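INFO batch 0412 | record 1 of 1 | parsing
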Amino acid sequence: IYRPETSVPLDKEYSVLHIVRLKGITLLTLLPNFLTENEAAIALQTLGRAAIERNEDENVNKEATHLLIQLAQSRPEQINSTVLPLFLEALNEDMIAAHKVARLLNALGSISVAASGTLMPVLRGLVMLVTAGQMASSHSQATIETVRKVLEAAMAANSDAKLNADLYAAIISPLTAWIHGLASTNQDVPPKLVVEVARALVTLLSKLETSAQEQLLEPLFSNYLAVLLSSDESIGGLCQLLPVFSAAVCSCRPETKLPVDSLDAFVGSLTVSALASNSQIRRDVCFEIIASMLNKIKDSKLRSSLTQIVLQHTGGSGTGLSVILLHQWVARALISCNDKSGYDSVRWLLEQIKQASPHAAEAAEGFNIILGEHDWA
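INFO prediction complete | emitting C-alpha cells
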C-alpha cells in the first residue's frame, strides 16, 4: 500500500485509485495506536511524495496536500520531521520550474496554518532556504511572499504577543539581515523582493508591543539612518533597501519613541535630505516617514511645530518637483488626521496649478496622493 510504483500504474485513468489509496493510508494513520511510529512515518512519506511529485492528474497532488493538512492537526511533530524535509528538498532542486515552486509553496502555506505546531517549523524552513542564497531570485521572492501570507493568516487567527516576538526573531530578523548583506556588497536586490520583505516586517512589527518596537528599531536606525541622510553614492547599494526602513518606522505605534535625540532635528534632516537628493527612493522614503510622523502625533502643538520645521526648508528650494511632493505628503498627513493646517499646503498646490508653474501637472496629479487611501500603521 505504501509503494505506488509496485501497485497501481501512474497513468491518468488510474488517478481515482491513487486518491482512494491515499485516503486509505490517511485513515490508517488516524486510527489510534494502529500503526507503529515507523509505519506512520512511512505513510506520511507516501502522502508527502504524492503531494510533491508530478502526476498526470493534478487532483492527486491536491488530494494528497488536503490529507496532509488534516494530519497536521493530529500529528504536527511527524509532519515537521517527516514531510517538511521532503518539501524543502524539492524546493531546493536545481532548475525547478516556477509552477512547481508555486504548488509546493501553496501546500506548505496551507499545512503551516492548519496547526500551531507546524507554523514555526515551516516558516523557519522556508527562511533558511531563502537565506542560504541558492534559490533563484524569482523563487526567493515567491517564498518570501508565502511567508508573508502565512504570517498574515497567523496574525488574523491569533495575535499573541510572545508568538509575535518569537516569529519576528526567527523570521524577520534573518530576512532583513540577509538582504542587508546582499546590498552591502552592492548586489542588486529586486524591488519586488524588497517590497515583500518590507510587507512581512510590517505584518509582525505592527503587532508588537511598544517596548518591543522601540528595541527593534534601534538596529534598523543603526543600519539605515546614515544611508537615508547621506548623498554618498558609494552606499547606493543599501539605498535600495530604504523602503524596509520606512516600513518599519511607519508601522510603529503612535506612542513608540524613535531612537533619535531630537524629533525636531530628525524631521529637519529628513526634509533637507529629501529636497537635496537625486535618488527617488531616498526622497520618497523621507517624505513617507515625515508624513507618517505628522499623522500619528496627537499633540497638536508638537505637530504644528514639526510641520513648520518641515515647510520652512522649502523657502529656498523654489517650486521644484521635490517641493511639490513634500506639500502633497504634508497635506495628506494633516488632512487625514483632521488638522486644518493641511489645507495650507493644498492652497499652495492650487496656486502652482493656477500660475501654470513648470510642475503644475505634477501638482494636479498629486491630489491622488492627498485623497487616496494610505495605511498609516
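INFO post-check: Residues 4-11 have pLDDT under 50 and may be disordered.
INFO record closed
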